[in-house]
Amino acid sequence: MSNLVIVESPFKASTIKGWLGSNYKVIASVGHVRDLPKSTLGVDIDNHFEAHYINIRGKGELIKEIKKEAKAANKVFFATDPDREGEAISWHLAVALGIPPEKVQRITFNEVTKNVVKAAVKQPRQLDMDLVNAQQARRILDRIVGYKLSPYLWKTVRSGLSAGRVQSVATKLIVDRENEIRAFVPEEYWTIDVDLLCADGKSTVKARYVGDVSGKAKLSNEEEAMTVVRGVTGKPFTVETIKRATRKKNPAPPFTTSTMQQEASRRLSFQSARVMKVAQELYEGVNIGTEFGGTQGLITYMRTDSLRVSAEAQAAAAALIKEKYGDAYCPAVPRTYKTRTGAQDAHEAIRPARIEVEPAKIRKMLTPDQYKLYKLIWERFVASQMESAELETMTVDFKCRDWLFRTSGYTVTFPGYMAVYEETADDSRRPSGTAEEPEAQKDLRIPALKEGSSLSSTAIDPARHFTEAPPRYTEGSFIKLLEEKGIGRPSTFATIITTITTRGYVKREGKALLPTELGEITNDIMLQNFSSVVDEQFTARMEDDLDEIENGKESMEDVLSRFWGKFEVQLSDAERQIGSLNVQVPVETTDFICEKCGSRMVVKNGRFGKFAACPNYPKCKSTRPLTENVTDPAAKTPAEEVAPDMKCEVCGADMVLRTGRFGSFYACSRYPDCKFTKQKVREIGVPCPKCGAALVMKTGRNKTVFYSCEKYPTCEFSSWDAPTNEKCPVCGQMLFRKKGKQVMVCHTDGCKYTREIEQPEGEPETK
Question: Which active-site residues does the annotation give?
């Protein structure tokens, strides 16, 4: 009998299956196998918040296969990811397979390499139910908020909207920044730069006005600036002080999930979802050729907020640094970094699994995205273990009558870690209303100057400026803000941003994130009626409560009860005020011009999704599909969106939504390496009249819509007409909405019942 190892990803399964020998079989669950039902709340609030889980649709055959393998195995090892989500997946699997939690052989590994995986199998443990309950509490909280608030938004704003425990706070933060920008009043200020001729008669030094002898530094208007200009014109500048110093500049620590996303956003222009997708690929395993051992994980686990690094990794880094750069670049004592207070320290910082696998040596084996991100992680980690850089700084102050001017700069005397990597800066976190500061000049070379010597000016340049409003958040700076405020956790940052942009509450403008009109209206309603849900401190405390559950210091029921007690009151109060609200929903315009009346078309929501319609409906009923970009008809298909909670059934990678000749479909994000695709379907909430399973809406050739049973071809039911939940008053069977007509019909043989129906406002006429 063999042993069974269950992992989440088929790609990870293929990576490790040959490392454990013939007595082990490795199989993948392809993510979660159980979840709360989509059609109902799925949580019995009055019965201790009991969750009613069901097997995820489409996972039945997989569960049956895993159960068969588990029954035949001597031992079953659950090797899902080493975090709350992974622990919960193992627990759900154990329940689905009928294995008692105390008999579960749980193993975890921080990196997918042969030695680490083999060592993990030798040290199994039981399931950590505190971890499981922390994940359950988060899932139940999110379900309660989403399923209780979303219907309220449907009634007050627009159908199809959603609210979330974290997404609502995230939207509020971006709205708050936009309001801050709108309220900002710029202030005028002036700078004065001068070019000073040195004693050699050839070299010049550029200096900037920094104030007068009384301490006043700011020049608020032109009159003040020109007073200084007139006062120094033709007058000598005396070298007041020369300050030289040496200082050390320390390297940045290795990456956490948050800092990796921030730096990849700044340096690589990667969106957070793209960063996590590529990092997952690097963690699960890439074939890097026989020279380096074939397929294996290249980085450690990528969901972490710890800065801890193992002693083995430090030793390997030191050996590489000495060999590649010399002893002077390697500190005598390995560098350690202090993890911030409140951070989870279960996993190491993100680092290369094997430091000797240099990015340049395996570039041909990686995709462009994989190479860029791996190179960034490798360089950041190596630099974090190197000696500090040494800089020689110089600051020279010049005096002309009662005014002071300054020049400053530095020279790198020993590059240290800067020989490998230097962190980039993000100016989107700059405080509002600040004046532009002159940057220190790099490699500043100033001819020999002596204190008290006199220089003449060759040019005087006054310039007018205005203080600037705080910039909009980029993904990188927004992730940093979420981390600072304790909103969400490293594993959820990318999902938060994806959710608020997909829902239409926030949009991207270049790299910047800004709220839509819909986002601002929804935020106002949430502030008025559900203040605790959008309260940053409340949300942060809730994250702390989840951590306390994980640490065994809080019970899941107590945390949920405290939340529900306050939330239920707000929900009741809001329901009573629904009738008094007067919400004006913003109209989303397009660049399409109505062919019949010449008006600019607007975006409408219909039974088949969004479409462009004439704003003069019902006088003008012109419509057109939104197959192109809404605001730019000539634009290409919008950027791919990662399909949430959907994994490739072949390799386990994320699935992305794409558009082809026959409409939308899901494709593996590893294409062309993996060519798995799946047609995009949508449940319509109607049972199949033949077998009772769910009916789905599909897109066929020429983008024609039809309906079929989800079990097709096992169940052969399909129809061009739209099935409904309405029953025929004559024979009691299902009624259908006739394709292309505003007519309800019965399909039952011998029954000729028909009825005309009114066309809903804004609904496109079916062609």
Answer: 301
